[in-house]
Every structure is written in C-alpha cells, then in structure tokens.
Amino acid sequence: MTGSVDRRVAARIERQGILAREVPPQLIVVVDEGAIRRAGEGAEKLMSAQLLHLAACAERPNTSVHVVPADAGLHAGLSGPLSLAHLEDGSWVGHLESQLGGDVVDRPAELDTLFERWESIRNEALSRRQSLDLIKEGANQWT
C-alpha cells in the first residue's frame, strides 16, 4: 500500500510542475468555501500550510482561484468535482470525479452540459482578489 501511495504522491507533485513551466497553461480553479473552513481534528497546521500554498499558487499570473462563498447556498458544484481541459489540437475534454473513480467526457452534448454547469458555478464565485483574501483568512484561522 505504501508504494502505491508514494507513486500517487509523486504523480501529483509531477503534475504540479506543469504549472511552473516556462510557458505554463492557464488554470482556473473554483472551490467551495467549505473546503477552506473545514479541517479534521489535529489537521489544523496542515490545513494552514495547504491554504498558504494555494494562496501562493493563486498569485501566479497563469492561475486564478475563485471561492464560492457559503452564502451562495446550493449550486451545481456541490454535485462533485469537474474538470475541463482545452487540448493542444483545439478540442475539449471533461472529467467528472466520484468516490468510485472518474469519467472522461468528450461527447459534444455532454461537454455543453459541463460548460453550462461550469459557468453557473463561476457565476456564484467571488472575484480573484476577494477569493485570495478569503483563502489567506482561512489559513490564518488554522494557525
């Protein structure tokens, strides 16, 4: 099990390196405020470090992080994580995550639905600056 965990951690760290390339891709992330405010007992220090890392990433010119505030109520993002990627050939691909794994979405009608949900979620989110301030506030909450 440890070998599997180590490989997954290494893969994630390698993927993060993509954002530090000389010509990095644009990354836009939207998270729910609950993800910033909730930490497991005894994980406060780790949560603070993670949020400070997220804030540092959000300050890069190619990365935008937006937070959907708690007072937004129910929104499409609460049904689970989704990703959209614009590929080098100009096409788009989506990915939906669940507790059982993930599903790749590449059919036009399904991609249209994901784009509609994405825009709905982004419309509920705070601005980049407001979100960064909230993330930093969250980091301070756990110190």
Molecular structure report:
With 143 residues, the chain is α+β, with helices and mostly antiparallel strands. The protein has one domain. 47% of the residues lie in helices and 20% in strands. It has 5 helices and 5 strands, in the order H-E-H-H-E-E-E-E-H-H. The protein has helices at 2-17, 33-37, 44-58, 108-124, 128-141, and strands spanning 27-32, 63-68, 82-86, 92-98, 101-105. The strands form 2 sheets. Strands 3-4-5 form a 3-stranded antiparallel β-sheet, covered by helices on one side. A two-stranded parallel sheet has the order 1-2. Helix 3 (44-58) packs antiparallel against helix 5 (128-141). It is globular. The mean pLDDT is 90.
Ends apart, CA distance between termini: 32 Å
Looking across the biggest beta sheet, what order are the strands in?
3-4-5
- The structure class reads alpha+beta
- The oligomeric status of these chains comes to single chain
Q: What is the molecular shape? A: globular
Extract low-pLDDT stretches.
Answer: none
Strand content: 15-25%
Count of alpha/pi helices: 5
Order of SSEs: HEHHEEEEHH
The chain-level mean pLDDT equals 90
Give me the secondary-structure topology:
Layout: H1 2-17, E1 27-32, H2 33-37, H3 44-58, E2 63-68, E3 82-86, E4 92-98, E5 101-105, H4 108-124, H5 128-141
Parallel strand pairs: 1-2
Antiparallel strand pairs: 3-4, 4-5
Write a brief structural summary.
The protein has helices at residues 2-17, 33-37, 44-58, 108-124, 128-141, and strands spanning 27-32, 63-68, 82-86, 92-98, 101-105. It is α+β, with helices and mostly antiparallel strands.
